[in-house]
Design a protein that fits this description.
The chain has 24 helices and 38 strands. It has 793 residues and is α/β, with parallel strands linked by helices. It folds into 5 domains: 132 residues, Rossmann fold (3-Layer(aba) Sandwich), CATH 3.40.50; 207 residues, FAD/NAD(P)-binding domain; 162 residues, FAD/NAD(P)-binding domain; 46 residues, Alpha-Beta Plaits (2-Layer Sandwich); 153 residues, Rossmann fold, CATH 3.40.50. The structure holds flavin-adenine dinucleotide.
Length: 793
């Protein structure tokens, strides 16, 4: 095996901390390395050319790139080496930026970079060429969420000739935009611009709209997702003409959700007059079953015996556009929402000011129906707050400016105050919009109110004007709160799709800068406020971007996917069935007494860790390759305690990278080995790690319930807990093995976990006393434990 090692400076990002010459010289001394070089930016075209030239000049079989995280440019380097004539899977990346130069100081970082290169070379020696897997792509797409994002994405894709299934949980599509009165900064009527799009989506021959429906189950993989949709019983059939006679006679009245509870609706209802479809729904929770609606329905559309229906569809891609909700401002009791009738939320204000809303567009106090003469708007209610949500909700400043102008337009005499922390007006025409509000006589007070109380029918707002440095008290007739924008409550769906949440609970993208509309799961895309708080222009732009990424994928009709999947070495397999039993994806079957792997394998590696004869292996993550990394992780003069961490690709490895991005320092004696899923970690790897010099081992995966491979992390948990029990039984301290869950956004947690673990290990006696026990335990695990017991490990 002829290996080339290429060390990247990444400008000063790596070279500013790591002694590149020392790393290059060390790499050249390693077995099988025939050339070691450095470059300022390996990802630049000249850097890639350098690699390609060296492959030809030195007749290389495999390449090690020591640079940024493999999550960043692994695909790029695979392409580079493929173009230079070697198999793209003959590549290993040593992460000497996110997990080295960005988290350690000079000197120690150089030592760690050398170790990471040594581990990568050890793995590269065992790399094998792999063939890409070709799969057919179903040219159909599932769009989840029928707000403006979902509607826009559906229309874009249908126009390009793809079949679209648009699933919305409410009885009508439209989302929050349908509830808005006017839209900043142009002040168009919201439903006037959204309504035609809703109708267009409904009428489009290639868009199948499922309202009052939810996604029940998703299986499969990019190009071939199988989806079950639950169409909830509306108790009103498609024969409904939307005439509304039923609702006029219905005796039941309940708060109307669309009107934010400011008006009532009947138990048989349409959410709003422009609803699409214009089809009534019976709210089964409140219906008395009197049958009056059925008696008067001339279309005979009422069906009290209707049942939920499960519809099964096959799609190639999925777009998630499930939008947002508002933070529950009752939790911030100092503002009195829920106690004082005239303290309302911004979305309630939208309905109040809307000509089709509960007051016909008249801005009145809810307590006495009188026109308010002095109105306060309070910004950042729950946003930018240590007590609630730390992030900025992005759109509140702008919609509040819109609200103030709407008041001034309707009644210029009204005194309007905005209590703000900073005014954030970033967008085309937004700054001008702000100045327009100022010029119309709106008062701006910099400071977050501390308390609101009611006295003599007036609301008294206690706030500090931070520009004047003075605590003040103001009197108002009405107060409008701008609650934080939070992601729609969709944990079940998120887990079904295996999309991680970011630290604020929004859906996480594959790469914040380079793949902002793709989920980390191939074939799944994200649009609108499901991703982060956004205004309508950005939502629409992101929806079109997601649609175009999905279309680009489906247009190929065939897709080549990475062969990082399971394969069987037939000579070693004796058909014990354990791999089949452990597989969540039904991707393994038996033929002629041997296992074989089907194309829907996801490559999690749970089967390989369970296989008692090492017959099951994972491309790019074979036992031999991982064990080679393990045995090269430590030098005997490395500082103690030494820690080896097995990190799953999607969450905990990304979490370690996030620690790097945030430049969080943690002890240098922690080295990571990337696996696709924590379920890939064979207990043998852990034991070998101890025998190779580790004082402690970390196995980290996605949070329980968030695994990208359904229950992979539960399998890891079960195995590692058994292993800990075995360690105790053999006289090895079980505290040396740490099992933990770290998400892709939890850089801080990663740094803390490893720091604390190193401290904990320091408090334990030297591992030397336990080595003999470890050797005995290793022999037991390797040779004597029965097949079944081995599986439960
Ligand atoms: P949403 O509108 O929230 O739509 C998401 C849809 O997904 C909903 O219909 C929901 O029912 C559905 N859904 C959720 N979960 C599921 C599920 N599991 N299965 C199926 N369906 C599901 N922006 C502007 O540009 N100009 C303005 O003037 C403006 N004013 C605003 C005023 C207020 C008070 C607020 C709060 C926001 C305002 N915005 C404004 C922002 C605007 O509302 C958003 O940009 C826009 O609505 C985002 O659209 P969306 O499709 O991403 O999300």
């Amino acid at each position: 095996m002829r290996i080339g090692v290429f060390v990247c400076h990444c400008g000063r990002n790596i070279a500013g901390v790591v002694d590149i010459d020392e790393v290059v010289s060390y790499a050249s001394s390693l077995d099988n390395v025939v050339i070691a070089k450095d470059d300022r930016y390996l990802c630049s075209s000249s850097g890639q050319q350098e690699v390609a030239n060296a492959i030809k000049e030195y007749n290389l079989d495999a390449v090690v790139i020591a640079a940024c995280s493999p999550r960043m440019h692994e695909q790029l380097f695979r392409k580079t080496i493929e173009e230079a004539g070697i198999n793209p899977y003959m590549l290993e990346v040593a992460n000497i930026r996110e997990q080295c130069s960005w988290v350690h100081t000079a000197g120690e970082a150089t030592q760690k970079a050398k170790a990471l290169v040594r581990m990568a070379v050890a793995k590269a020696k065992h790399l094998k060429p792999l063939e890409k897997i070709q799969i057919e792509i179903t040219p159909k797409v599932l769009v989840i969420g029928g707000g403006v994002a979902g509607i826009q994405a559906s229309l874009d894709l249908a126009e390009q000739g793809f079949e679209v299934y648009l699933v919305e949980k409410q009885p009508s599509i439209g989302g929050h935009m349908a509830m808005l009165d006017k839209t900043f900064p142009t002040m168009d009527c919201s439903i006037c611009i959204l309504g035609p799009k809703m109708v267009e989506a409904w009428r489009h021959e290639r868009i199948h709209v499922f309202t009052y429906s939810e996604v029940e189950e998703v299986s499969g993989y990019v190009g071939n997702f199988k989806v079950k949709i639950r169409k909830k019983a509306r108790f009103v059939t498609d024969a409904c003409t939307g005439c509304g006679v039923c609702a006029t006679l219905c005796p039941v009245e309940v708060p109307n959700e669309f009107e934010m509870g400011l008006a009532n609706r009947k138990a048989i209802y349409i959410p709003f007059p422009q609803a699409v479809p214009l089809q009534y729904t019976i709210d089964a929770e409140h219906c008395l079953g009197c049958g009056m609606c059925s008696d008067v329905c001339s279309a005979s559309a009422i069906d009290f015996f209707q049942q939920d229906k499960i519809v099964e569809i096959d799609v190639g891609t999925i777009i998630v556009a499930t939008g947002y909700e508002l933070y529950d401002v009752k939790k911030l009791s100092e503002y009195g929402y829920g106690r004082f009738k005239d303290v309302i939320t911004s979305l309630e204000f939208e309905r109040l000011v809307n000509a089709a809303g509960p007051t016909g567009g008249k801005i009145i106090r809810l307590s006495d129906g009188k026109e308010p003469k002095r109105i306060a708007f309070i910004q950042c209610v729950g946003s930018r707050s240590e007590r609630a949500k730390k992030y900025c909700s992005g759109i509140c400043c702008m919609y509040t400016l819109k609200h103030t102008m709407q008041i001034k337009e309707k009644n210029p005499e009204t005194e309007v105050y905005v209590f703000y922390m900073d005014i954030r007006a970033v967008g085309k025409g937004y700054e001008e919009f702000y100045w327009k509000a100022r010029d119309s006589g709106v008062n701006f007070v910099r400071g977050r109110p501390a308390r609101i109380y009611e006295e003599d029918g007036k609301l008294r707002v206690v706030a500090e004007d931070t520009l004047l440095g003075k605590p003040l008290e103001y009197e108002f007739d009405m107060v409008v709160l701008a609650p934080a924008i939070i992601p729609a409550e969709n944990d079940k769906l998120r887990q079904m799709l295996a999309i991680p949440a970011d630290k604020d609970g929004f859906l996480m993208e594959a790469h914040a800068k380079l793949r902002p509309v793709e989920a980390p799961i191939s074939g799944i895309f994200i649009a609108g406020c499901a991703h982060s708080p956004k205004d309508i222009p950005s939502t629409v732009a992101q929806a079109s971007a997601a649609a175009s990424r999905a279309a680009a994928l489906m247009a190929k009709r065939k897709l080549e996917i990475d062969p990082i999947t399971a394969y069987v070495i037939p000579e070693l397999c004796f058909g014990c069935n354990l791999c089949k039993e452990v597989c969540d994806f039904n991707a393994i079957d038996m033929a002629w007494g041997k296992a074989y792997v089907k194309p829907n394998c996801t490559g999690c590696g749970a089967c390989a860790a369970a296989c008692p004869t090492n017959a099951m292996q994972i491309g790019c993550f074979t036992d031999v390759q991982i064990l080679a990394q393990v045995s090269e992780a430590f030098d005997f003069d490395d500082e103690k305690p030494r820690v080896l961490a097995f990190l799953c690709n999607w969450c905990s490895y990304a979490g370690a990278d996030a620690a790097g991005l945030a430049r969080l320092k943690y002890p240098v004696n922690v080295k990571a080995i990337r696996v696709m899923c924590s379920a890939r970690v064979d207990p043998v790897f852990v034991i070998k790690a101890f025998l190779s010099g580790a004082d402690g081992v970390i196995v980290a995966g996605c949070h329980l319930g968030d695994c990208h491979y359904m229950t992979g992390n539960y399998k890891a948990k079960r195995r590692m807990e058994k292993l800990q029990a075995l360690m105790e039984q053999f006289g090895v301290r079980k505290e040396r093995l740490l099992l933990t869950w770290i998400s892709a956004s939890e850089g801080e947690k990663f740094a803390k976990v490893v720091t604390d673990f190193v401290e904990k290990l320091k408090s334990l006696p030297d591992i030397d006393d336990e080595i003999r026990n470890l050797v005995r335990m290793s022999q037991e695990v390797e040779n004597e434990v029965s097949l079944k017991e081995r599986n439960s490990l």
